[in-house]
Amino acid sequence: MSSITDLTLAELRDALKAGKVSSLEAVDAYLGEIEKARALNAYIVVTADRAREMAKASDAKLSKGEGGPIEGVPLGIKDLFCTQGVQTTAGSHILEGFVPTYESTVSANLWRDGGVLLGKLNMDEFAMGSSNETSYFGPVINPWRAKGGNARLTPGGSSGGSSASVAAHLCAAATATDTGGSIRQPASLTATVGVKPTYGRCSRWGIVAFASSLDQAGPIARDTRDAAIMLRSMAGHDPKDSTSVNQPVPDYERSLGASMKGLRIGVPKEYRIDGMPAEIERLWADGVKWMKDAGCEIVEISLPLTKYALPVYYIVAPAEASSNLARYDGVRYGHRAKDFADVQSMYANSRAEGFGKEVQRRIMIGTYVLSAGYYDAYYLRAQKVRKRILDEFNDAFKKVDLILTPSAPSAAFALGEKSNDPVQMYLNDVFTVTANLAGLPGASIPAGLDSRGLPLGLQLIARPFDEETMFSGMYALEQAANFKARPERWWA
Amino acid sequence: MTVDTNTVRKVAKLARLAVPEERLEPLTAELNGILKWIEQLNEVDVAGVEPMTSTVDMKLPMREDVLQSGPTGGGQPDNVVANAPKTEDHFFVVPKVVE
After folding, report:
1. Is residue B13 assigned to a domain?
2. Is A182 among the residues known to form the active site?
3. Is A46 helix (H, G, I), strand (E, B) or coil?
4. Residue B19 belongs to what domain range?
5. Residue among B8, B49, B82 whose CB faces A101 most closely
6. Which residues of A touch B50 (CB under 8 A)?
7. Which of A51, A72, A115, A167 is 20 to 30 Å from A276 by CA-CA measure?
8. What stretches of A126-236 adopt beta strand conformation (E)?
9. Contact of A266 with A402, CB cutoff 8 Å
């Protein structure tokens, strides 16, 4: 048998059930790998003791032939999910030292099904970023490097700790969240599979809020099957989240290998944007061909409002963030400034010290677009354009079953390359943000390498709550792409 | 629309963010860069369009108006103040607000 950490989640699950390996062995193997990969900065906190305790409990169940669907499988949790008794920071100084007294519903669902917590994964501060450079705990480094180079590249963001740790085999799979592309863009940049389910599929309870009408949790995993297994455990109705939808959660693994014959795949011409590398366009054409070969019908579609999705997002998301982040006042939890004259300056100083630059920028934009006199011109107009974008998707899905696009407009870029220009950084989410605005499920799967040897992903978007067709499509693409490349272990 | 440093100062006050004077000008430039980019939304015809309020087509669920059990329930003052910077007898302590 190859090394334990090189087993996929599905293989490890089966090996654990068959008694070929114990959960404790798996945990120790992963802890060893995490230790060697400190240079990647993927974990903010490693919970070695808790991991071993949970593993022993899992092994006791497994030895009796009991246990949940992922019993004993070691997982990484994005530091946006509250974990009882384990520091949860959202990548921010303002929450440094915050130890939740409760568990997020999604992580609790994973523990219910037998998952084991390895630690908390680094991320952009409050999930605001596309390169992991806004984390108070320093950027995560992409395990992938360009051929012949040693420049430090971004693993994408905001779920950069999740993507890097899955790509470097520092956990069997990871949780992540996606507000504008924060699961799919990092997955694309690290050759991992990232799934953002339909809004309402996973409970947001216990996830540090960024933009509540857009935030959705999902997995980053090594392949489509692993992502299907993870999502099945993470998803489910939760009365504690009023937008959580009461629908049964299908066994997504069963959708893998379903016939694609006759499925209509939409290819939106507006996703062919200026300045997109020819390699990405070629890969997209490959994806179209793979779908055709699988028996799909290819349908050219038009989504003319695509270019307005990002500007809509940069009104709606900061507006919701400015409201959500008003709770950090240095009173109930989080950082409190030492120097202040009165309660007002205590609030203002605590927030100025606790929030990083990008977070402050977005709070300012959000406060401005919601302020008296500007609300109609910015926020209301954005919500109207958002409605038209949703209508456009609804019309498209009358003609097609899935939409195929590239996941990101570029491969992994160097740290520092885009951090001085907010708008350039925002453009990373140009292909992913539409699904958030419309609440649709979307996924990125690794499809090829560019000429520098860096991974590129393809995205599938599906109808609301039709993740099953999406998983069938992902599996078909995965089979056709036959992507096997791995990053060199330069960090170990 | 562009903002000037006075507007940025006012917005910072509304947002309860202490922005030092020397940061006001660079911040104004950054915000104007973003606002200028956002302005392309004015090209879109939104006449007669209802603003979107939810991506999920469902009614807000109602529940019985009774005390919940578990983490959202009552009777756990220790948990409520566990992460507060300053507390006294299960109260949050803040600087004096009334003379």
Report:
1. yes
2. yes
3. strand
4. 5-43
5. B82
6. 384, 387
7. A167
8. 173-178, 193-196, 216-221
9. yes
Whats the size of chain B, residue-wise? Answer: 99
- Strand ranges, E, within A66-186: 74-78, 116-121, 173-178
| Residue B31 resides in a domain | yes
Q: Is residue B33 part of a domain?
A: yes
Give the tens place of pLDDT for each residue, A345-386.
999 999 999 999 999 999 999 999 999 899 999 999 999 999
| pTM (predicted TM-score) | 0.97
Tokens standing for A486?
């791995």
- Which residues on adjacent β-strands are paired with residue B91? B88
Any residues with CB less than 8 A from the CB of A372 and at least 6 apart, and which? none
Tell me if residue A233 is catalytic.
no
Whether residue B23 lies inside any domain: the answer is: yes
The mean of the pLDDT values for chain A is 97
Domain A4-257+467-481 bears CATH identifier 3.90.1300.10: yes
Mutate to test the interface with B, among A364, A369, A383, A461 (most CBs of B within 10 A): A364
User: How many domains does chain B contain in total?
Assistant: 1
Q: Per-residue pLDDT tens for A307-330?
A: 999 999 999 999 999 999 999 999
Look up A64 and say whether it is catalytic: no
Task: Please tell me the predicted confidence (pLDDT) of residue A2.
Answer: 65
In angstroms, what separates the C-alpha of A333 from chain B's closest C-alpha? Answer: 4
In whole angstroms, what is the distance from residue A212 CA to residue A324 CA?
A: 8
Q: Domain segments of chain A: what residues?
A: 4-257+467-481
| A331/B82 CB distance under 8 A | no
Q: Write phi, then psi, for B4 (nearest 5 degrees).
A: -105, 175
Q: Do A311 and B37 touch (CB under 8 A)?
A: yes
Identify the active-site residue in A23, A92, A158, A350: A158
Contact between A165 and A42 under an 8 Å Cβ cutoff? The reply is yes
